[in-house]
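User: Sequence in, structure out. Go.
Assistant: Echoing your sequence, followed by the structure tokens.
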Amino acid sequence: MIYKQKEIAITSEFIKLDSLLKFAGIVETGGIGKEIILEERIKVNGEVCTMRGKKIRPGDKVQIDEIKTELVIK
């Protein structure tokens, strides 16, 4: 699958997965982010992730298959 890459720059050591989805404009609310994470619709570095508090650090890749988007954290 070919993903459209979107680079996201963070200024802290990490950002939680649910916050990242909102920060990147993938979801409108944290509640929606929580739902899609729990529904196993998000991959972190190629692995399905169901932890909404997962710490995402620079260098990590978050994939959302249904919109063919990959967030690359800088």
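User: And one key feature?
Assistant: Residues 4-73 form a domain with the Structural Genomics Hypothetical 15.5 Kd Protein In mrcA-pckA Intergenic Region; Chain A fold (CATH 3.10.290.10).
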